[in-house]
Amino acid sequence: MKNIFNIGLAICVLVVSSCNEFLEKKPDIKMTIPKTLQDADLLLNDYAALNSGYPIWGEIGSDDYYLTKARWEGLSNVDQRNAYIWADLPYTDVTQWQRPYKTVYIANQAIEVSAKFNNNKQSLLYKRVIGGAHFFRAFALHSLVELHCSAYSNATAKMEFGIPIHRTAGVDEVSVRSSLEDSYMQIINDYKIASNNLPILEAVKGRPFKASAYAGLARVYLEMGNYNQAYLYADSCLQENSNLLDFNSLKSTDSYPVSRFNIEVLFSALAESAAPLYPTTALMDTILIKSYNQHDLRKSIFFRVNDNALDSYYYKGSYDQNTTLFCGLTTSEVYLIKAEIASRSGDVTVALETINKLLKTRWNNKVPYVNIVENDPERLLKIILQERRKELVFRGRRWSDLKRLNLDPRFKKTLNRSVGDKLYTLEPNSNKYAFRLSETVVELSGIPQNKR
């Protein structure tokens, strides 16, 4: 019966895809085939396809919020209910997998078209296309690695499962799971090609530029524990773009105070919509809320007091200025990467300078900001990691941070969820941190499921 259900679902997915393709076809089929650099450039302007629909299950599994029993039971999507309690059960939802690989496919199309114009390698259009395509592919692949793979460790990365790496636009390419090490190397190589080709400035909102690629590399290297490279790319990014929002200029009374495409945004990316994380459903973790100082404007900018569940809070701080969760790249994240690594390396001066520069922009200017002055690198690191959680709440970082920090005995954490009288637990370094692949994907492609 299970196989019949999954096969039926797969057929439905294929039928829907075929219908969409039919509806999108132009009267003249020749118009659908990109042939020029201009065509490839236009492919990368598809904001709906390339900048949205990124995986959300990691955020569903994070510890930044909770659901009441009634709210959890009211979720109609079984996969999302299971993700909330880290249930090790088969998933059928294919969108977490399908949407990023659609981005990969479009990026590969642009790369293949550009390859026909190698004699124009120095032209600005060629470099913009080839840089953009490699950036989008890197970002999409990394979103899949963060969700479906275990935490990166140099000792095990060669043996651990990665994800299939598709480098062509051929729909018949066989899917094979690469190693975790090879997956990360592909992501890094793509980001490096992007950084070498992307323009310093980009007029089209949603398209990446040089600082975007530097930020992507800093994020990936931090995740890998390669702190030297992460620091270098974070610093390079901030040399290109160090803009920070002054939260005093935002209106806490607005429904969504943080504007779309604001000066901190290095690359705009949106997660797939998910009911557990709706502003009217997710209740913010009470310990997290209490960690904000009364003069820290992030509390009023990011959250709204809620009376349905007494003394609870909803989230309203999306960098997309709506209910969709933002998972892109920002300068604020890069400041935190630089501060964290400076502290880890014992460079307290740079760590303090960096974290204080960020936090001052979040402080109510009617009250003098008091600099963090902690001189012990270990204690300072704990402060910076706490500020990282407070700053990047619901920005697609917490799941990845939990995974990487669990490798360090100082920071590993057991997660607990209560649903009624039932307690669910996620142990540090559990195999569940690598979310199962959709059973539909496994059955259609033949690739192996994650280890359990």
TrEMBL record:
Pfam families: SusD-like_3, SusD_RagB. Residues 331-407 form the RagB/SusD domain. TPR repeats lie at residues 211-244. Residues 21-222 form the SusD-like N-terminal domain. Its main location: membrane. It comes from the Bacteria. Signal peptide: none annotated. It is found in: Cell outer membrane. Keywords: Cell outer membrane, Membrane, Signal, TPR repeat. Belongs to the SusD family. This is RagB/SusD family nutrient uptake outer membrane protein.
